[in-house]
Amino acid sequence: MDAGTFGHEGSDFFIPMSPNERFEEALGQGEKIHDNYRRYAENFVSIPWCLMNHHMSCFAQWTEETRKQYLGYLQTPLAGRHFMMGDQISYHPGWQQGAFSSAHHALGELQKRVTIDSGPTI
């Protein structure tokens, strides 16, 4: 299972806690939803990404304004041949779905160019 926080409110709550305190909080929250949740939780990893050196976040946080301004530009191949792909260049940054949809978009654009350049097929 994976869980994450979005925005400072959730992060600020967990950051000052020790890893064991975070684990206990996660178990308590899980028990509110599932009986015996604690019984099935064997291991725990907690990473406060904002405290990692050279890593201010783990994914892009587009606003509607920045998405409108830059996403189309980033999806346009540089010099008509260099495609960028990745979760950061999608509507779902931070998720595998974003990486897949970004790759799908780039491959679709590449296919259009290959089809136009090579002409009709028999």
Q: Number of DSSP strands? A: 0
Query: Secondary-structure element order, as H and E?
Result: HHHHH
How far from one another are the termini?
A: 49 Å
Fraction of residues in H or I helices: 40-55%
Global mean pLDDT: 85
- Major β-sheet, in short? none
Q: What general outline do the C-alpha atoms trace? A: elongated
Low-pLDDT residue spans: none
Backbone CA Rg = 21 Å
Tally of structural domains: 2
CATH class category label of the largest domain: Mainly Alpha
Structural class: mainly alpha
Account of the protein in words:
The chain is 50% helix and 0% strand. It starts with 7 loop residues before the first helix and ends with a helix. The longest helix has 23 residues, at 96-118. The chain has 122 residues and is mainly α. It folds into two domains: 8-51, no CATH class; 64-118, Arc Repressor Mutant, subunit A (Orthogonal Bundle). The protein has five helices and no strands. The mean pLDDT is 85.
Helices, strands, pairings?
Blueprint: H1 8-14, H2 19-33, H3 37-40, H4 64-75, H5 96-118
Brief digest:
With 122 residues, this protein is mainly α.
Can you tag this structure with a few keywords?
50% helix, Flavin containing amine oxidoreductase, 122 residues, Arc Repressor Mutant, subunit A, FAD/NAD-bd_sf, 5 helices
